[in-house]
Amino acid sequence: MPGNPYSPPGSRVDEPPGPPRPPQVTRACQILWAVIALSVAVMHPEVSGEWWVLPDEAGAKWMVIMVAVALAWVAAYVVLVWLVGQRQNWARWMLLAAVAASTLFGMYDFESYLAETPLAALASLLFTLLEIWAFALLFFGPGAQWFRQAD
After folding, report:
1. Which of 32, 110, 115, 139, by CA, is between 20 and 30 Å from 100?
2. Beta-carbon neighbour count of residue 143 at 10 Å?
3. Which of 67, 99, 65 is CA-nearest to residue 80?
4. What is the pLDDT of residues 69-92, one digit of tens each?
5. Pick from 71, 135, 78, 80: which is nearest to 103 by CA?
Protein backbone atom coordinates (compact mmCIF):
# COMPACT_ATOMS: atom_id res chain seq x y z
CA MET A 1 0.00 0.00 0.00
CA PRO A 2 1.55 3.34 -1.07
CA GLY A 3 0.90 5.51 1.98
CA ASN A 4 -1.21 6.04 5.03
CA PRO A 5 -4.93 5.89 4.16
CA TYR A 6 -5.69 8.10 7.16
CA SER A 7 -3.46 11.03 6.13
CA PRO A 8 -5.14 14.28 5.00
CA PRO A 9 -5.39 15.00 1.30
CA GLY A 10 -2.30 16.49 -0.31
CA SER A 11 -3.98 19.08 -2.48
CA ARG A 12 -2.96 22.76 -2.53
CA VAL A 13 -5.31 25.07 -0.69
CA ASP A 14 -3.51 28.41 -1.05
CA GLU A 15 -4.14 30.93 -3.82
CA PRO A 16 -2.09 30.72 -6.99
CA PRO A 17 0.60 33.37 -7.37
CA GLY A 18 -0.33 36.56 -9.19
CA PRO A 19 1.17 37.72 -12.45
CA PRO A 20 4.88 38.53 -12.40
CA ARG A 21 5.97 42.08 -11.69
CA PRO A 22 6.24 44.08 -14.93
CA PRO A 23 9.64 45.51 -15.85
CA GLN A 24 8.15 49.03 -15.54
CA VAL A 25 7.49 48.50 -11.82
CA THR A 26 10.96 47.06 -11.31
CA ARG A 27 12.46 50.09 -13.08
CA ALA A 28 10.35 52.50 -10.99
CA CYS A 29 11.50 50.84 -7.77
CA GLN A 30 15.13 51.00 -8.93
CA ILE A 31 14.72 54.71 -9.64
CA LEU A 32 13.18 55.32 -6.22
CA TRP A 33 15.94 53.34 -4.46
CA ALA A 34 18.52 55.45 -6.31
CA VAL A 35 16.74 58.64 -5.23
CA ILE A 36 16.90 57.50 -1.60
CA ALA A 37 20.61 56.69 -1.76
CA LEU A 38 21.52 59.88 -3.58
CA SER A 39 19.35 62.04 -1.30
CA VAL A 40 21.21 60.76 1.74
CA ALA A 41 24.53 61.43 -0.01
CA VAL A 42 23.46 65.00 -0.84
CA MET A 43 23.01 65.71 2.88
CA HIS A 44 26.82 65.66 3.21
CA PRO A 45 28.24 69.09 4.19
CA GLU A 46 30.40 69.20 1.05
CA VAL A 47 27.18 69.36 -1.00
CA SER A 48 24.53 70.88 1.26
CA GLY A 49 26.79 73.30 3.07
CA GLU A 50 27.58 73.38 6.74
CA TRP A 51 23.98 73.19 7.92
CA TRP A 52 25.11 71.38 11.06
CA VAL A 53 27.10 74.37 12.38
CA LEU A 54 24.82 76.24 14.74
CA PRO A 55 25.59 79.35 16.80
CA ASP A 56 23.90 78.49 20.09
CA GLU A 57 22.30 75.76 22.17
CA ALA A 58 18.76 76.52 20.95
CA GLY A 59 19.97 76.05 17.40
CA ALA A 60 21.52 72.72 18.37
CA LYS A 61 18.17 71.51 19.70
CA TRP A 62 16.51 72.61 16.46
CA MET A 63 19.14 70.72 14.46
CA VAL A 64 18.48 67.52 16.43
CA ILE A 65 14.77 67.83 15.64
CA MET A 66 15.48 68.42 11.95
CA VAL A 67 17.84 65.44 11.73
CA ALA A 68 15.26 63.24 13.47
CA VAL A 69 12.56 64.38 11.02
CA ALA A 70 14.89 63.74 8.07
CA LEU A 71 15.70 60.23 9.34
CA ALA A 72 12.01 59.49 9.91
CA TRP A 73 11.24 60.67 6.36
CA VAL A 74 13.98 58.45 4.91
CA ALA A 75 12.74 55.46 6.92
CA ALA A 76 9.14 56.01 5.78
CA TYR A 77 10.28 56.42 2.16
CA VAL A 78 12.29 53.18 2.36
CA VAL A 79 9.36 51.23 3.79
CA LEU A 80 6.93 52.61 1.22
CA VAL A 81 9.24 51.84 -1.72
CA TRP A 82 9.71 48.31 -0.42
CA LEU A 83 5.94 47.86 -0.07
CA VAL A 84 5.36 49.23 -3.59
CA GLY A 85 7.73 46.52 -4.84
CA GLN A 86 5.61 44.00 -2.91
CA ARG A 87 2.49 45.11 -4.85
CA GLN A 88 0.83 47.09 -2.07
CA ASN A 89 -1.40 49.54 -3.92
CA TRP A 90 -2.04 51.70 -0.85
CA ALA A 91 1.74 52.19 -0.45
CA ARG A 92 1.95 53.46 -4.04
CA TRP A 93 -0.66 56.12 -3.25
CA MET A 94 0.91 57.01 0.12
CA LEU A 95 4.31 57.41 -1.51
CA LEU A 96 2.82 59.64 -4.19
CA ALA A 97 1.12 61.81 -1.56
CA ALA A 98 4.27 62.03 0.58
CA VAL A 99 6.51 62.94 -2.36
CA ALA A 100 3.98 65.48 -3.66
CA ALA A 101 3.75 67.13 -0.23
CA SER A 102 7.53 67.26 0.24
CA THR A 103 7.96 68.64 -3.28
CA LEU A 104 5.43 71.40 -2.59
CA PHE A 105 7.21 72.31 0.65
CA GLY A 106 10.56 72.21 -1.17
CA MET A 107 9.31 74.57 -3.87
CA TYR A 108 8.59 77.17 -1.18
CA ASP A 109 12.31 77.54 -0.32
CA PHE A 110 13.83 76.52 -3.64
CA GLU A 111 15.04 79.99 -4.63
CA SER A 112 16.97 80.54 -1.38
CA TYR A 113 18.16 76.92 -1.46
CA LEU A 114 19.50 77.51 -4.98
CA ALA A 115 21.29 80.70 -3.87
CA GLU A 116 22.87 79.11 -0.77
CA THR A 117 23.72 75.60 -1.99
CA PRO A 118 23.28 75.39 -5.76
CA LEU A 119 24.60 71.83 -6.10
CA ALA A 120 22.17 70.49 -3.51
CA ALA A 121 19.29 72.44 -5.06
CA LEU A 122 20.04 71.08 -8.53
CA ALA A 123 20.30 67.57 -7.09
CA SER A 124 16.89 68.08 -5.48
CA LEU A 125 15.47 69.14 -8.83
CA LEU A 126 16.98 66.05 -10.46
CA PHE A 127 15.46 63.83 -7.74
CA THR A 128 12.05 65.37 -8.39
CA LEU A 129 12.34 64.62 -12.10
CA LEU A 130 13.39 61.03 -11.36
CA GLU A 131 10.43 60.60 -9.01
CA ILE A 132 8.06 61.92 -11.68
CA TRP A 133 9.46 59.33 -14.07
CA ALA A 134 9.06 56.55 -11.48
CA PHE A 135 5.47 57.55 -10.72
CA ALA A 136 4.65 57.63 -14.44
CA LEU A 137 5.86 54.03 -14.62
CA LEU A 138 3.82 53.06 -11.55
CA PHE A 139 0.57 54.85 -12.42
CA PHE A 140 0.32 54.33 -16.19
CA GLY A 141 0.46 51.33 -18.53
CA PRO A 142 1.50 47.89 -17.31
CA GLY A 143 2.52 49.19 -13.88
CA ALA A 144 -0.96 50.55 -13.15
CA GLN A 145 -2.57 47.39 -14.51
CA TRP A 146 -0.41 45.20 -12.26
CA PHE A 147 -1.57 47.10 -9.18
CA ARG A 148 -5.23 47.02 -10.31
CA GLN A 149 -5.07 43.23 -10.66
CA ALA A 150 -4.04 42.97 -7.01
CA ASP A 151 -7.28 44.56 -5.76
Report:
1. 115
2. 24
3. 99
4. 888 989 999 999 999 999 999 999
5. 135
